[in-house]
Amino acid sequence: MSQMRKLYLSKNDFKEELAQLDAEWHRRKEECAGDDAKLKLTNDEMMSRFRELAGLRERSKSVGLLSEARELDIGFPMVTDTDSWMGLDGAFGLPFLSPTGSLKVRRAVDEEKVRRREVKAWWWKIVIIPALTALIGLVGAVTGLVAVLHSK
């Protein structure tokens, strides 16, 4: 993996890397046929690489979700909240949101989007549409008045 890919891994890149890892695992498993000790070492190495790859993908998803939350001015779960974060021990590099943490942030993002949509709807229903209605009515009244005065 290149240095850039260590910071971010898209869904398609993850699938490609996973397919390559799977192919390499099957190839190396055939090479180790009959040698149980070598097979165990190979399996351990491949599982370690898979965990690293899965951690990288989870971290990438966390970055996207946290970026969206930051744009909406939503606070993040505290790093001390161990239910919301994974990898705090440094085993997988930088910490990333756990499924529980992702759920909390996603709910907060969705609630903020709904709130903003409701604010826009309020402005349209309470301010803009009644003002346009009054303006159109006023234009109609002025037009009628001009027509009556012009006919006399």
Give structural attributes.
disordered N terminus, elongated, two-stranded antiparallel ribbon, 3 helices, 152 residues, mainly alpha, single chain
Give your account of this protein's structure.
The chain has a two-stranded antiparallel sheet. α1 (11-31) packs antiparallel against α2 (36-71) and α2 packs parallel to α3 (99-151). The longest helix has 53 residues, at 99-151. It is mainly alpha-helical. The protein has helices spanning 11-31, 36-71, 99-151, and strands at residues 85-86, 96-97. It is 72% helix and 3% strand.
Side by side, the strands of the main sheet go 1-2
Give the tally of β-strands.
2
- Low-pLDDT parts are 1-5
Overall pLDDT score: 86
SSE arrangement:
Blueprint: H1 11-31, H2 36-71, E1 85-86, E2 96-97, H3 99-151
Antiparallel strand pairs: 1-2
Produce a short descriptive summary.
With 152 residues, the chain is mainly α.
